[in-house]
Design brief:
This protein is an alpha+beta fold. The chain is built from eight helices and twelve strands. Helix 1 crosses helix 2.
């Protein structure tokens, strides 16, 4: 099919639209897979339906890329030779059968049903019997092709390529949005700077995390989940000592959330000076003793040892 390149032809646009309509109903919801999907089908040579080949190839490529399709889609082109009252329906027509025949009937779908149809006919029309035969043969051919595709890959890969950018969506309670942002944006800014992710928060609590790799996206998600999680008595955290006072030490539990370990809760033994036990920057294990009505958190290092 070598020819001068003058841009995308009407035929290519039409075939692309047909393939897109065939696959579109099986795409995952945006909340489950918030990506823009672009399929490029380069047809170097054809002796049959390039649009139906695009449906099959597009399905295989998306399954291989980890797109969670609801079901695999395949397509097949049906033909017709009609002379007087006699007619023969052809399955998977070649180029000559398309050119010399009376019908080009493209049918795409899953094992459960049809997602797209397109028919070109060179005669005045077809009757119900021919239509029924064509659809029955198309179903058999489509299911055969799906069986061959399933031998190669029958479900989406569990993980996308390590080189694919990550776009992750989580929901938080709208009341927790201010905790994620922090005073003057300090909390969300620290998360983006330390993980390298871009984070967008909608008014309804939808948090979208964009990252160049899965590891950084998981790290950002974990931090946000920690911030928005309810801190309850009995929980044990490992946190950093961020401030020393005469009466105790403040320990960071999650980004933007810290609590006080009173001097009496530092050790089983009597403590004269807080700095005898901990210093700023130390990582310590603490247990949540109480969260008061103002949201202040009382912690204990001594209680962790007692549990052990």
């Amino acid at each position: 099919e070598a020819r001068p390149y003058r841009g995308t032809s009407r035929r290519e646009v039409g075939h692309g639209n047909l393939a897109e309509r065939a696959i579109q109903p099986l795409l995952p919801a945006y909340d489950d897979f918030p990506y823009t999907i672009r399929i490029v089908s380069d047809v170097l040579e054809s002796n049959g339906s390039s649009s139906m080949a695009t449906v099959c190839g597009g399905t295989l490529s998306m399954l291989d890329a980890g797109v969670p399709l609801k079901a695999p889609v395949a397509g097949i082109a049906m033909g017709l030779i009609k002379e007087g009252d006699q007619s023969v329906v052809l399955t998977d027509i070649l180029g000559d059968e398309d050119h010399l025949g009376d019908m080009d009937f493209k049918v795409a779908g899953t094992e459960e049903g049809i997602t797209a149809l397109q028919m070109d006919i060179k005669i005045e029309g077809i009757n119900e019997e021919i239509m029924r035969i064509a659809l029955d043969q198309a179903k058999d051919g489509r299911n055969f092709i799906l069986g061959e595709m399933n031998k190669v890959i029958h479900e989406p890969r569990s993980e996308m390529s390590e080189y694919a950018p990550r776009l992750m969506t989580i929901k938080v309670h709208p009341d927790k949005i201010r905790d994620v942002i922090g005073k003057g944006g300090v909390t969300i800014r620290s998360i983006t700077e330390e993980t390298g992710c871009t984070i967008d928060i909608a008014d309804d609590g939808t948090v979208t995390i964009a990252s160049v790799n899965k590891e950084d996206a998981d790290d950002a998600r974990r931090r946000i989940e920690q911030i928005t999680a309810d801190i309850e008595p009995g929980q044990i955290f490992e946190g950093k000592v961020i401030k020393i006072m005469n009466f105790g030490a403040f320990v960071s539990l999650t980004p933007g959330r810290d609590g006080l370990v009173h001097i009496s809760q530092l050790s089983d033994e009597r403590v004269e000076n807080v700095t005898d036990v901990v210093k700023e920057g130390d990582m310590v294990k603490v247990k949540v003793l109480e969260v008061d009505k103002q949201g202040r958190i009382r912690l204990s290092m001594k209680a962790v040892g007692e549990d052990d």
